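Action item from last meeting closed. Structure (207 res):
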């Protein structure tokens, strides 16, 4: 039953990331779009939903069974982003964003693997910062800042967030073997980036 709950939670989280992606694609101003994209992560942490890039950083502090939970979370996020993309495709919104998401997907999938990995790594670092500060800071305003600022930074910097890209690729109907391989590279980059600060904390016994 707990595994089913984790899967459903991850699916809902994936849909919220897709919601953030939809508003980002709908706006021409990248700063406003990146700020509003963060509503997805803000909702996820507020309701304690399962997001892979929000959980991977804590792997170093957990027992081996955590690997299974991460796998369930990744799969659920994929399903959620796909479902959200399918739903958006059946609305009038899609007509206004279809060309933009196709171009975004093309740029990502034509990038070289080292670039993709590095950009995903830095996104992973920012995601851990957002989640961990939200958990540990006191005060609703500081918690909100902890979420929104890292998200705005990773989007405006062009860093790669694997769950957001699951949504973009689904919306652009870009899935194939090449796309899946890039998703794996992004997953590795996000994971290692998310583990950077925790590894430092663990190494020097700061937590």
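Sequence:
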């Amino acid at each position: 039953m707990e595994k089913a709950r984790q899967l459903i939670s991850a699916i809902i989280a994936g849909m919220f990331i897709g919601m953030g992606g939809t508003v980002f694609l709908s706006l021409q101003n990248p700063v406003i779009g990146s700020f509003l994209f963060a509503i997805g992560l803000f909702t996820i942490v507020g309701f304690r939903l399962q997001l892979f890039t929000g959980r991977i950083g804590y792997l170093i502090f957990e027992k081996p069974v955590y690997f299974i939970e991460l796998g369930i979370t990744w799969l659920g996020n994929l399903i959620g982003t796909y479902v959200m993309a399918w739903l958006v495709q059946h609305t009038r919104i899609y007509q206004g964003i279809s060309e933009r998401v196709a171009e975004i997907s093309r740029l990502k999938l034509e990038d070289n693997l080292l670039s993709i990995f590095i950009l995903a790594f830095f996104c992973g670092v920012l995601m851990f910062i957002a989640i961990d500060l939200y958990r540990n800071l006191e005060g609703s305003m500081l918690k909100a800042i902890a979420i929104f600022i890292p998200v705005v930074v990773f989007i405006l910097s062009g860093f790669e967030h694997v769950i957001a890209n699951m949504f973009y690729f689904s919306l652009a109907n870009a899935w194939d073997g090449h796309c899946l391989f890039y998703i794996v590279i992004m997953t590795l980059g996000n994971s290692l980036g998310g583990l950077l600060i925790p590894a430092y904390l663990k190494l020097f016994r700061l937590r």
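Note appended to the action item: The chain has one domain: 2-203.
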